[in-house]
């Protein structure tokens, strides 16, 4: 099968988990015998075409997008779609379907599919409705919500990364359930390669007798980092020598740092900003007889899937997540592979963190069981499920 994929990010252009998802899925599809072409952006820095691990990557040359001006960003997205449409048109015919990811590339994907008269499949990784807790009545949220609604209704089929997202998408966009398929993200433990000197890395952030609490992700409201900061003073009082480490960047960074200052937390932790995968994966890891991080917190208010939790568990780091969204599917109930705290509850988060940091037996049991649990999230299985959707769409189009 010959597949045309559109994504606004693809390694080494990485804004979040979407880039990793598209890359791993595309590479697995190639291993399974498919031909995959990805149209994406290059930020004006990369060659227009390259082959990466068997995937044909076609990049449109774009300047850096305006991060702090949403109206300018929407205009930038429109221009990017025009460039992607032109780049996709130059690839000619012969494709069996178009597969696009999220609203940012919907305009180009829809036109490319219609011009080629092939099925259009959309993967929804998150929704504007979910990110803003349903507040999508004002611009620019209303604009993005509208694009997502038109996209999912016009597409021939929709994939979501969790059953939670399947329910949300069918509900808020008024789609028939049969049109939406939930296929979870995958993880490849061999990708989680740490730096060579883990003890030295650990020493940068905590002393040997201190426990280190790790938070990873985009610094935006829906990730709930403000809840973790509110819980830390009480956790430090009850447990003792606890430090925190926040890895990530985003629009809420200044606000979170100001919150940490108000809570007198800056002497107890570090904001390291965005970091490369080698350092990030190292933070989850075990170094000699102790871990870099003693606990990974995922306190999201809205979380379509929960890749950070999956990476942490795959790396042997004890994990606590909010009882919400796709995190419920990554960390099932029952205290088997990780702990879940009551979503948005600072008190519940603090209590769970205290329990895990002070109960060695619980911590070791969760880590052992999580190492088996994560094997369920296999990219080969994700690709097989995705291919089944491809085949169903292509067959229905040819027999129509």
Automatic annotation (TrEMBL):
Any single GO BP term: carbohydrate derivative biosynthetic process
Glycosyl transferase family domain: residues covered: 203-371
Name of the protein in its database record: Glycosyltransferase family 4 protein
Any Pfam family: Glyco_transf_4
Residues annotated as domain Glycosyltransferase subfamily 4-like N-terminal: 16-190
Organism of this sequence: Solirubrobacter phytolaccae
Assigned keywords, A-Z: Glycosyltransferase, Transferase
Gene3D superfamilies: Glycogen Phosphorylase B
Matching SUPFAM superfamilies: UDP-Glycosyltransferase/glycogen phosphorylase
GO molecular function, one term: glycosyltransferase activity
Organismal lineage: Bacteria, Bacillati, Actinomycetota, Thermoleophilia, Solirubrobacterales
């Amino acid at each position: 099968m010959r597949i045309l994929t559109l994504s606004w990010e693809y390694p080494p252009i990485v804004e979040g988990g979407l880039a990793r998802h598209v890359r791993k899925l595309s590479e697995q599809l190639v291993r399974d015998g498919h031909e995959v072409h990805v149209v994406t952006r290059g930020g004006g820095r990369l060659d227009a075409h390259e082959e990466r691990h068997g995937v044909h990557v076609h990049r449109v040359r774009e300047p850096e997008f305006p991060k702090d001006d949403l109206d300018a960003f929407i205009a930038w997205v429109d221009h990017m779609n025009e460039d992607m449409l032109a780049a996709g048109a130059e690839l000619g015919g012969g494709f069996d379907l178009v597969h696009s990811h999220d609203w940012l590339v919907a305009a180009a994907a829809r036109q490319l599919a219609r011009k080629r008269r092939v099925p259009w499949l959309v993967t929804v990784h998150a929704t504007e409705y979910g990110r803003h807790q349903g507040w999508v009545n004002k611009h620019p949220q209303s604009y993005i919500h509208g694009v997502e609604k038109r996209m999912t209704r016009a597409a021939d089929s929709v994939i979501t990364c969790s059953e939670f997202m399947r329910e949300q998408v069918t509900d808020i966009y008024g789609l028939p359930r049969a049109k939406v398929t939930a296929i979870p993200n995958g993880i490849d433990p061999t990708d989680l390669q740490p730096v060579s000197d883990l003890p030295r890395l650990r020493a940068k952030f905590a002393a040997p007798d201190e426990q280190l609490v790790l938070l990873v992700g985009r610094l935006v409201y829906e990730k709930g980092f403000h809840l973790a900061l509110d819980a830390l003073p009480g956790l430090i009082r009850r447990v003792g020598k606890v430090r925190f480490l926040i890895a990530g960047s985003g629009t809420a960074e200044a606000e979170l740092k100001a919150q940490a200052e108000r809570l007198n937390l800056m002497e107890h932790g570090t904001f390291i900003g965005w970091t490369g995968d080698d350092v990030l994966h190292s933070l989850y890891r075990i170094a000699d007889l102790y871990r870099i991080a003693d606990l990974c917190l995922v306190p999201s208010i809205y979380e379509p899937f929960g890749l950070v939790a999956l990476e942490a568990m795959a790396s042997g780091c004890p994990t606590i997540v909010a009882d919400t969204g796709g995190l419920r599917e990554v960390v099932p109930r029952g205290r088997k592979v990780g702990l879940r705290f009551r979503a948005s509850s600072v008190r519940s988060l603090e209590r769970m963190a205290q329990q895990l940091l002070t109960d060695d037996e619980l911590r070791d049991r969760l880590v052992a069981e999580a190492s088996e649990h994560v094997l369920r999230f296999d990219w080969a299985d994700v690709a097989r499920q995705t291919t089944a959707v491809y085949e169903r769409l292509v067959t229905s189009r040819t027999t129509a």
